[in-house]
Amino acid sequence: MFGLVDGNNFYVSCERVFQPRLEGRPVVVLSNNDGNVVSRSAEAKQLGIAMGAPFFQVRALLRQHQGQALSSNYALYGDMSRRVMARLSEQVPGVEVYSIDEAFLDLHGMDTWLGPLQARVRALRQDVLACTGIPTCVGLGPTKTLAKVANRLAKNYPELQGVLRLDSDSRRERALRALPVGDVWGIGRQYAQVLLSHGITTAWALAGVSEAWARQHLGGVVGWRLVQELRGQPCQGLQPSEDGTLARQSIRCSRTFGQRLSHFDELWGAVSSYLSRATEKLRAQGKQAHLLTVFISQDRFDTRVPPPYTRSATLTVPGGPTSDTLRLLAYARRLVERLYEPGRVYVKAGVVLDGLEPAGRGQQLDLFAPAPGAAPPLSCSNNRSQQLMQQVDALNRRFGRGTVRPAAAVVAAGQPVPWAGKAQHRSPAYTTRLEELLWVK
Length: 441
Description:
Elements: E1 2-7, H1 10-18, E2 27-30, E3 37-40, H2 42-46, H3 55-64, E4 68-71, H4 74-89, E5 94-99, E6 102-106, H5 110-114, H6 117-132, E7 136-141, H7 144-156, E8 163-165, H8 169-178, H9 189-197, H10 203-207, H11 211-217, H12 221-230, E9 251-261, H13 264-284, E10 287-297, E11 310-316, H14 325-339, E12 346-358, H15 382-399
Parallel strand pairs: 2-4, 7-8
Antiparallel strand pairs: 1-6, 1-7, 2-3, 5-6, 9-12, 10-11, 10-12
Helix pairs in contact: 4-6, 11-12, 13-14
C-alpha cells in the first residue's frame, strides 16, 4: 500500500502556525514581486479567488472580507517542509519527497506489524499536526497513482476527515468515476484534450482502455503504465526525492526584478547573483556544467518596446566542465556585455547551466588543453579552485546564504538591492533567522 501526504493550503498553513490571528480569515500568499496568488486558504477559495489571480484584481475583495495577503516566505516554507518530512520519515518504512508539500509513503507491511492501517495513518496525521502545526490529508492506494487519486478526494470531501483508502475494487471504481480525466496524475492539458475528443471524460473510463489504445494515444509504454496503475497494478515504486538532492539535467536561476533596470552594473549584479546561486546548487549535486546560458528580458507587455523582448547567449565552457563560480562569472560577464544594449530597460534576467556531468570522473579530455605542468589559464589551479568553492559553500551554510558572494552582487551599505523582488507583505523568517525568532511574552 502506498500513501500520499499533502499539506493543506501549505503556504497559508505555514503562516498560520506563527500567526493564529489568520485562522478563519481569507488568506492568500503571493508570488515573487507580489504579482499573483499562489496559495489560498479555504476561506479565500470560497470567495472565488482563483489560483494565479493577479493581486490587484483581488485586493479590494480581500479588504472587504477582512482578509490578508502575504508575500512568499520561502525560507519559512522550506524549513516547515523539512520538519513535516522528518516526522514522516521517523514513522514509515520509506518516504519520497515529491514536492515542498507532498510526500509518497511506502506503507507495505505496516498493517501486519502495527495494526489497522487506517488508524495508523490517522495517528500519523495527528502527530504531524501536533509537532509542526501543519494540517494534512492522506490518500492510500495499492499504486502511487491511486494514492494520488485518494488524496485529491480526501481534500475535496470533508466527511472523509482527511483520509481515504482505496483498498477494494468497489471503492476504486467509485473514486475513479468521480474524478475528471484531466485531474489524473500524469495527464496534462494536451493529453486531456485527446482523451475528451475520444469521449473519455473520467478516470474510470481511462482505466478501461486497451493496451494498444493507450500506447497509441498516451505516449507509448508510459501511458500504458498509467492505465495499469489506475487498475491497481503497481508500475513504479518510490523515487529519489524532490528535496534539492535530486540530480537534474540542467539548473536554472532567474527572477523578475522589483524595479526596471537600465544600467549595465545593475543588470550584471543581478546576473552574477543568480549565477552564484546556480553554481551552489550545481556543487550540492556533485556536478559540473559544460554549457552556460544567460538571458535578459524586456517588458513584453510594454507597447513601446520593440521585439525581441528576450535575448540570450550560450557558451560552451572553455577548458571543459566546471562548477567554479569565479570561472563561470568571467564567461557570464562576456555574455552580458554581448547582450546588453544601452538605453533599453530590463525587467528580468537569468542563467541556465546545462550539459551536467559528475565532477572528477568521466570527463572528456580537451585536445587544446595546456600540457601537463604548464600554467593553467586561470589564476587558480583546479585543486585550489575546488578548495575555495568548498570553503565558500561552508561559510554560506554556517552563516547564511549570501554571506560570501560575488562583488558585483554587493551594494553599498544601507542601499536597497536594485534587482530584489517586491515583498511588501512578507512575514518574518521565524525558524531560520535568529534575529526574527518569535518572542512570546
